[in-house]
């Protein structure tokens, strides 16, 4: 069960990571297009709005992907000090804490997305984007993160230690 | 009194949660939620509704797009041989100065910093080439590691800079102006480092052998430096001339790098894909911390912490100089345990109002803060430049940190200089924006 969930999550995260890469290309492309059109006095008029959505989606879709690859920063002092056989304790505690926080926020955010969908709320811009779309993408990213954290918690409970790497910047 | 208790509660929660090893972004979200519910008597419903909206609003930001784009540009260059040519191009120049190619560490980093937004990327890119060269030619190991650690952190101060974008978004000041403000202090630090290397080389000749063997002439060195100079001119030029916003300049930078690599037949599918994947990882890390910090700062706002603490500090009537010293100590303390982005986003809701109230310019404070963050990059136990160098050289973290000490002191000196002469920071942005 835990193994299956882990497998599914990894696949989904690969997909999300791919989507995030495409979004980066889209952002670069749209900005370049806008600069090119400016030379001719034209504009797509939606640059700020769409690039904003893309950045939000990219950030949240990338969370599970980055978490799996150990590139999200954490303070590893306690883990460095603790003998390896005790690592599961802080690992499990921090995974559950993150899971609880994001599950809570995803729950309330889900309500908000649903309301936007039902009321057909659109953005206050020229494009009149249905807001549930970008909001829903962020929700999707949060849910995928929760799934990743759940899979991690289960595998920790089963006695497996995920590899930890340090983030960089 | 109550404010102090609440502040202590929030700080305690942060230490507990992050100390446990929780990912910084998730930890900040948990603390925001926890402090609203426990310290602010919000019920979970209200806290959840408020915070989940902030989560979206903070992430949905067009200015943030500069972060993934500048990271992508750095990743592409990191994987190409542009940095290798940068080293060979600087070599004939450096050999004329006492200290020799140790100066390529400093100026290689300073130049690379002008196309890269992060200090880890700068240290790794330049260090990848210079560490082996320097030890092969018999340069003192402490000096080569230390100068690399110190100069690598210039990646944050010399634009483009991820930390500056983060600061600009949070403090609501112009990112372009911040970028301009970082240039002269960055060069100042590079000169201080070079000066130190010259001094050491003259007094202890055994540490820096002089060998005049570069097969590259000054003229052909220019050809080697050309690609990186073109990129700097394109990116920085478009920002400084006011044609492009930082995000637009970043997109231009990405396109120019791709064209350059394609022309030189270096661009391969695997290089492109690896760069993109790495960009997703790094920009998710930065942006998620930024978004999480927006939650924390909202929560602190609801608890009235920033205003009351700023009021409390104001009531102490510290002189501006004393306030700066206190802030510097505070940031160096934080820098021992946290990375730059986390320090910036977590402290700003509290420190910015205090600093503004004391009459400091927010652009100037941005540069001061970045120097503080740079100090944090080279102080153990958590210093990202130290980690990078540990990985590159295989030395113990203690040895790496030890070699960085003189450069730490020099950077403190630079912080003091820009505090005494704020014009060093503000002259260029004021001059260019007329």
TrEMBL record, chain A:
Residue ranges crossing the lipid bilayer per the database entry: 12-33, 45-67, 88-110, 130-151
Swiss-Prot/TrEMBL keywords: Cell inner membrane, Cell membrane, Membrane, Transmembrane, Transmembrane helix, Transport
Matching InterPro entries: DctQ, TRAP_DctQ
Keyword Membrane found: yes
Tripartite ATP-independent periplasmic transporters DctQ component domain residues: 28-157
Chief location bin: membrane
UniProt KW Hydrolase keyword: no
Assigned protein family: Belongs to the TRAP transporter small permease family.
Protein name (database record): TRAP transporter small permease protein
Automatic annotation (TrEMBL), chain B:
InterPro entries: DctM, TRAP_DctM
Localization per record: Cell inner membrane
Keywords: Cell inner membrane, Cell membrane, Membrane, Transmembrane, Transmembrane helix, Transport
Pfam families attached to this UniProt entry: DctM
Membrane topology: Multi-pass membrane protein
Domain TRAP C4-dicarboxylate transport system permease DctM subunit: from-to ranges: 12-423
TM helices/strands, residue ranges: 6-39, 100-122, 143-167, 179-202, 222-243, 249-267, 279-303, 309-329, 336-356, 362-388, 400-428
Subunit structure: The complex comprises the extracytoplasmic solute receptor protein and the two transmembrane proteins.
Homology family: Belongs to the TRAP transporter large permease family.
Function according to Swiss-Prot or TrEMBL: Part of the tripartite ATP-independent periplasmic (TRAP) transport system.
Record protein name field: TRAP transporter large permease protein
């Amino acid at each position: 069960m835990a193994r299956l969930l882990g497998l599914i999550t990894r696949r989904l995260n690969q997909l999300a990571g791919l989507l995030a890469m495409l979004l980066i290309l889209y952002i670069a492309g749209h900005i370049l297009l806008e600069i090119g059109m400016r030379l001719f006095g034209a504009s797509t008029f939606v640059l700020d709005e769409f690039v904003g959505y893309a950045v939000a989606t990219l950030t949240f879709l990338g969370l599970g992907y980055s978490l799996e690859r150990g590139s999200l920063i954490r303070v590893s002092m306690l883990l460095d000090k603790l003998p390896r056989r005790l690592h599961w304790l802080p690992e499990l505690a921090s995974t559950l804490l993150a899971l609880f926080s994001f599950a809570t926020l995803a729950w309330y955010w889900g309500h908000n997305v649903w309301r936007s969908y039902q009321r057909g709320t659109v953005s206050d811009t020229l494009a009149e984007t249905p807001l549930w779309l970008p909001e829903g993408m962020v929700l999707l990213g949060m849910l995928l993160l929760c799934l990743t954290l759940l899979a991690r918690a289960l595998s920790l409970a089963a006695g497996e230690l995920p590899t930890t790497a340090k983030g960089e910047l | 009194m109550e404010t102090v208790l609440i502040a202590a509660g929030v700080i305690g929660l942060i230490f507990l949660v992050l100390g446990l090893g929780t990912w910084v972004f998730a930890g900040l979200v948990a603390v925001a939620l926890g402090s609203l519910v426990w310290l602010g008597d919000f019920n979970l419903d209200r806290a959840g509704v408020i915070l989940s909206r902030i989560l979206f609003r903070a992430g949905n930001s067009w200015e943030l797009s500069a972060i993934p784009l500048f990271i992508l540009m750095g990743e592409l260059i990191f994987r190409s041989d542009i940095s290798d040519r940068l080293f060979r191009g600087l070599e004939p120049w450096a050999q004329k100065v006492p200290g020799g190619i140790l100066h390529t560490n400093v100026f290689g980093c300073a130049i690379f910093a002008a196309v890269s937004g992060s200090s880890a990327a700068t240290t790794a890119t330049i260090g990848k080439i210079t560490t082996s060269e320097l030890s092969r030619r018999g340069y003192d190991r402490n000096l080569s590691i230390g100068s690399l650690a110190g100069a690598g952190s210039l990646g944050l101060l010399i634009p483009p800079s991820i930390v500056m974008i983060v600061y600009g978004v949070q403090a609501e000041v112009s990112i372009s102006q911040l970028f301009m403000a970082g240039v002269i202090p960055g060069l100042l630090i590079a000169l201080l480092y070079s000066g130190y290397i010259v001094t050491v080389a003259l007094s202890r000749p055994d540490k820096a052998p002089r060998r005049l063997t570069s097969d590259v002439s000054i003229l052909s060195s220019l050809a080697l430096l050309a690609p990186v100079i073109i990129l700097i001119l394109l990116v920085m030029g478009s920002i400084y001339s006011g044609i492009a916003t930082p995000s637009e300049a970043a997109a231009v930078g990405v396109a120019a790098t791709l064209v350059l690599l394609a022309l030189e037949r270096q661009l391969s599918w695997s290089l492109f894909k690896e760069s993109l994947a790495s960009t997703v990882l790094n920009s998710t890390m930065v942006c998620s911390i930024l978004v999480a910090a927006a939650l924390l700062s909202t929560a602190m706002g609801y608890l009235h912490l920033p205003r009351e603490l700023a009021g409390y500090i104001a009531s102490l009537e510290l002189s501006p100089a004393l306030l700066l010293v206190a802030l510097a100590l505070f940031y160096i303390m934080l820098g021992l345990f946290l990375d730059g982005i986390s320090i910036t986003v977590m402290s700003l809701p509290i420190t910015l109002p205090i600093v503004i109230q004391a009459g400091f310019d927010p652009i100037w404070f941005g540069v001061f803060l970045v120097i503080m963050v740079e100090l944090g990059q080279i102080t153990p136990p958590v210093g990202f430049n130290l980690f990078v160098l540990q990985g590159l050289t295989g030395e113990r973290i203690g040895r790496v940190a030890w070699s960085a000490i003189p450069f730490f002191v020099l950077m403190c000196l630079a912080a003091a200089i820009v505090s005494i002469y704020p014009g060093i920071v503000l002259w260029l942005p004021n001059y260019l924006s007329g």
